[in-house]
Amino acid sequence: MNPALFSIYQYYTYCARDCRQAVLSVHFQVKLTFIPSLTEIFMRATHQYDFAIVGAGLTGVALAYGLARLGRSVVVLERLEKSKILNKPSHGLIWAQANLGLPAVQREWNNLALSRWNEFDAQLCQISASTTHFERPGGVWLALDKLALQGRQLQAEAGANEDPELEWLDTETLKRLVHSLGDGIAGASYCADDGQLNLQLLHRSLSRALSNLNVDQLFLSAVERLQDTGDNYRIVGEGINVCANQVVLATGGQSDELVQSLGFESLRTVIDTFWETAQVRHFLPFPAWQLRQSRDGSLLIPVGEEGERSENWNTSLAAYPPLQQLDIRRHWHDTRCKTANALPRYQRSTTHSGVFRIASPDSLLHCSLHSSLVPAWLVGKLPDKAMAPFTNNITQDNEMAASSIGGHVAEFSGLLHQNFEI
Q1: What is the pLDDT of residues 107-122, one digit of tens each?
Q2: Angle at 387 between CA 383 and CA 388, to 5 degrees
Q3: Do 74 and 123 fall into the same domain?
Q4: Element housing 274 (H / E)
Q5: Residues 15 and 129 grouped into a single domain
């Protein structure tokens, strides 16, 4: 028997142990649920890539999208099924008000991400021939009482500059804008730079763009370890055998053993819970931090890490009293990483020069940079010092770190326009 065909036969025989329905003909025609095609097997066994991205969440697919646009061959490896990756809430926030009270280095990075979002979305929709429903109607943070509103105003005044630029809305103004607003809201902060989109559509647009850019996406592919062959890295895991010149860990969900073996610190992951209600008549002209409304009319309430009724629920109930009678039709869970100082991590391994770790506590906001600026750094178009504020050991002052980012902004902008114009 031909050795290659015999290897395929052995592979399918192994897979059949865990599958109840398998039909093997003499020509090795196979009908197996969740079994990859022959083409995928050959690709897994023999194909080499410039980059292998471990993790198909927002950070991973955004990085793959940016690297492919720079002309690199890319494979994305994900341990979960594709359906679980795409199973996201229908509403996502691009939240400029997140800058309130943050250290200068975070504000600078977030502002750079915010400035890129319109262009990022337009290019993504063109390449993927789809839409994300991204828009920037502004957004509000609702205050339950005067004390909460005054506290937020003091927090804004304590900032070194007017970032973000906020407007303060009293109850009367809010009621003119939101016709169904309840009487329990004392006021709100409003920022015109806040935006919203359909998170499910964003994931699907990125996935379609990767297909159009010839990026391979391998699901049910859990990475166990990396082997440095001297010329590249061999990625080993159950059912996978991929080689890549460079490897990027783009998720906080890897095993501590894998992460630490590559010279990175372990990250904690948290699960945020959202409740989605039945559909109601549209009444929100813009999203609120505590209460969002999708295009289909359903309401989305972030209830925190533990999934219990929280201050956001109480504020949402005060803003829209009929919420108490609405059915909670779905619970969404979104996993994110948590770093020691709440800053993103853009790190090169100290033990494996071709291995990187990218992690962001706000992967949605930073998607515009993970698809452009960070890939430019990964391929060597930016020096490591440009990402110095986000390495594992940040010892420099926050203002110095912010100045470092600010000093590279002109360089960043030139690179982006040179390399990522359609």
Answers
A1: 889 999 999 999 999 9
A2: 100
A3: yes
A4: strand 268-279
A5: no
Closest by Cα among 59, 4, 37 to 206: 59
Cα 145 to Cα 312: distance, rounded to the nearest angstrom: 13
pLDDT at 225: 92
pLDDT in tens, 163-186: 789 999 999 999 999 989 999 999
SS (H, E, C) 76-141: EECCCCHHHHHCCCCCEEECHHHHCCCCHHHHHHHHHHHHHHHHHHHHHHHHHCCCCCCECCCEEE
Instruction: Look at the chain and report how many structural domains it folds into.
Output: 2
**Co-location of 205 and 246 in the same domain:** yes
d(CA 112, CA 316): 31
| Domain range for 20 | 1-35
In a domain, 320, yes or no: no
pLDDT in tens, 313-365: 999 999 999 999 999 999 888 888 888 778 899 999 999 999 999 999 999 99
The 3-state DSSP class for residue 38 equals: helix
| Pair (11, 58) in one structural domain | no
Cβ atoms of 19 and 215 within 8 Å: the answer is no
Q: Residue 125 domain-assigned?
A: yes
Does residue 2 sit in the same domain as residue 125?
no
How does the average pLDDT of the chain come out, rounded? Answer: 83
Same domain, 367 and 245: yes
414 and 367 inside one domain: yes
CB 326 within 8 A of CB 310: no
| 297 within some domain | no
* Per-residue pLDDT, 236: 92
Instruction: Please indicate, yes or no, if residue 184 is contained in any of the structural domains.
Output: no
Cβ neighbours for 115, distance < 8 A, ≥ 6 positions apart? none
The CA distance from 73 to 49, in Å, is 5
Sign of CA dihedral 229, 65, 379, 47: positive
DSSP letter, residue 273? E
Where residue 72 sits, what CATH number does that domain have? 3.50.50.60
For the whole model, what pTM was predicted?
0.84
Question: 349 and 370: one domain?
Answer: yes
CA dihedral defined by 291, 363, 97, 180, rounded to 10 degrees?
A: -10
